[in-house]
């Protein structure tokens, strides 16, 4: 294969590309090769970025929203033209297989056009006033400067969920992507620039560790932090934002379950589980990591899953035959290995998988074989904690009611799913499952961008990414009263 040039990426501040003094290597997780250098930005870069954003935002907010949206239409078109090239870069830096990388770029394309449409809506409300000759309405206004912190597992999709609504609503952005996947951030920013986004409206800074993130969270001129990432970091961000009365939107993972009832189409359920558990090598917040299975169909479901796993080729995602790409880095591998040990110690039965199945040349990359534990109890650590790898735990249950209880007995509440042919169970499940996303007769993954994405309990703090609901994070509601009576009219008092 032709060697790619190692390129040094740069910050983008006030419309200028600025290299940083220090860099870190970006490693292709499929091969262990260095593919780029990511700048390690300083607090000064954050300061410059925030100043630029603050200044640019004032002008940007005055541009009519339909014109702001034109930038997103052009962004969507450019993304579409470059979809294949971007998907390949995404596979190289993140490892996900090419088919999924194309899907992820498509998600950003869809989000660009969807949010561009909002330029001609951004609906507010008109409301009758209680007084005569008085007009009342609620309008959305931009908040100001938005700090966006995005993870490596969906580097362009999640960035688009957050930045496109922020931009169309008239805000400016300071964006810190994950250092593992800076190329997508670099490419998306270049596309926004080419699409005509005025300088300062999008600013890009990079950083591992907490320097850059902390500087953003603490900065008094950043009014909103939108974060997707780990629970620990998210809670720290929330605590600091709480102290500063800064609005914060958090999305922090899941322990998603697929419920398989005894009347389910087992072939369909097995397909759904395989896609949700092993797609993106299990490195999705929405990944299925628990299967809550009715005891009557447990053995048959195990057999079907084992048969399907045999066809999952593990390897470099650039190879179209491959279905399971690498884990993002060695730390990720070590974490998954530890959970395999924990599961065995807890008394779960390892049906298939484990690190030992990775052999030969694959050892050079960060690969992990699709793994199933069975006879797991809902209270075990492997059934409670987020593993972020291709590991799924089968938990047998005796009834529908028990399945719902097991589903709900985890700290997270992102996504859940049920396979059943019983319409009553379908409706009871969509009411009783306590997650932000519920699927019926489909696996836990695959959100569509025009629906709200997010979860309950430890998954977040009540806000949603994507969907029209994302606008609630990036706008304030302003109540506007216009009194055209020409006299003093007091609410509550001068009402006849
Ligand atoms: C995430 O892992 O945080 O709907 C996002 C899905 C993907 C996005 C997952 N498109 O599962």
UniProtKB/TrEMBL annotation:
Cross-referenced CDD domains = ALDH_AldH-CAJ73105 (cd07131)
Quick check: keyword Cell wall biogenesis/degradation in the entry? no
Record-annotated active site: 251
InterPro entries hit by this protein: Ald_DH/histidinol_DH, Ald_DH_C, Ald_DH_CS_CYS, Ald_DH_CS_GLU, Ald_DH_N, Aldehyde_DH_dom, ALDH7A1-like
Q: Keywords, A to Z?
A: NAD, Oxidoreductase
Which PROSITE patterns is this protein grouped with? Answer: ALDEHYDE_DEHYDR_CYS (PS00070), ALDEHYDE_DEHYDR_GLU (PS00687)
Stretches assigned to the Aldehyde dehydrogenase domain:
17-480
- Tell me what reaction this enzyme catalyses: (2S)-3-sulfolactaldehyde + NAD(+) + H2O = (2S)-3-sulfolactate + NADH + 2 H(+)
GO MF term (any one) = aldehyde dehydrogenase (NAD+) activity
The keyword Oxidoreductase is assigned to this record: yes
The EC number on file is: 1.2.1.3, 1.2.1.97
- Going by the record, the broad EC class of this enzyme is oxidoreductase
> Record's Pfam families?
Aldedh
Q: Quaternary structure per UniProt? A: Homotetramer.
Family, per entry: Belongs to the aldehyde dehydrogenase family.
Q: What functional role does this protein have?
A: Part of the sulfo-TAL (or sulfo-SFT) pathway, a D-sulfoquinovose degradation pathway that produces sulfolactate (SL). Catalyzes the oxidation of 3-sulfolactaldehyde (SLA) to sulfolactate (SL).
Per its record, how is this protein called by name? 3-sulfolactaldehyde dehydrogenase
The source organism is: Caldibacillus thermoamylovorans
């Amino acid at each position: 294969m032709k060697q790619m040039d190692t390129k040094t990426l740069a910050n983008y501040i006030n419309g200028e590309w600025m290299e940083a003094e220090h860099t870190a290597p970006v490693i292709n997780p499929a091969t262990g090769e260095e593919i780029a250098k990511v700048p390690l930005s300083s607090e000064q870069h954050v300061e410059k970025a925030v100043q630029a954003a603050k200044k640019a935002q004032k002008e940007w907010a005055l541009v009519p929203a339909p014109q702001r949206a034109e930038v997103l239409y052009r962004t969507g078109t450019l993304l579409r033209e470059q979809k294949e090239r971007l998907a390949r870069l995404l596979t190289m830096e993140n490892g996900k297989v090419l088919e999924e990388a194309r899907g992820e770029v498509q998600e950003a394309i869809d989000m660009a056009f969807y949010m561009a449409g909002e330029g001609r809506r951004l609906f507010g409300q008109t409301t009758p006033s209680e007084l005569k000759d008085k007009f009342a309405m609620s309008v959305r206004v931009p908040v100001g400067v938005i700090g966006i912190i995005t993870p490596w597992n969906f580097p362009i999709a999640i960035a688009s969920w957050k930045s496109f609504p922020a931009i169309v609503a008239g805000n400016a952005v300071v964006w810190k992507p994950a250092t593992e996947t800076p190329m997508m951030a670099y490419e998306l920013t270049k596309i926004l620039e080419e699409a005509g986004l005025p300088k300062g409206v999008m600013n890009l800074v990079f950083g591992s560790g907490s320097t850059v993130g902390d500087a953003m969270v603490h900065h008094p001129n950043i009014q909103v932090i939108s974060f997707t990432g780990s629970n620990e970091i998210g809670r720290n961000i929330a605590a600091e934002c709480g102290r500063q009365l800064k609005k914060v939107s958090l999305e922090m993972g899941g322990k998603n379950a697929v419920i398989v009832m005894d009347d389910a189409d087992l072939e369909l359920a097995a397909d759904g589980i395989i896609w949700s558990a092993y797609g993106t090598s299990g490195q999705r917040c929405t990944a299925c990591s628990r299967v809550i299975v009715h005891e009557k169909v447990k053995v048959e479901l195990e057999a079907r899953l084992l048969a399907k796993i045999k066809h999952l080729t593990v390897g470099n995602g650039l190879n179209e035959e491959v279905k399971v790409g690498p884990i993002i880095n060695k730390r990720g591998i070590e974490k998954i290995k530890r959970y395999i040990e924990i599961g065995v110690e807890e008394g779960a039965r390892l049906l298939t998988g484990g690190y030992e199945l990775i052999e030969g040349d694959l050892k050079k990359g960060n690969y992990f074989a699709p793994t199933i534990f069975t006879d797991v109890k809902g209270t075990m650590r492997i059934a409670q904690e987020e593993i972020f790898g291709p590991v799924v735990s089968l938990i047998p249950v005796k009834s529908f009611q028990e399945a719902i209880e097991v589903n709900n007995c985890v700290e997270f509440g992102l996504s859940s799913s049920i396979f059943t042919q019983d319409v009553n169970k379908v409706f009871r499940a969509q009411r009783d499952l306590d997650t932000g996303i519920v699927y019926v007769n489909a696996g836990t993954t695959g959100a569509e961008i025009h629906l709200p994405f997010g979860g309950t309990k430890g998954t977040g703090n009540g806000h949603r990414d994507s969907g029209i609901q994302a606008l609630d994070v990036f706008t304030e509601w302003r109540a506007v009263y216009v009194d055209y009576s020409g006299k003093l009219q007091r609410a509550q008092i001068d009402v006849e």
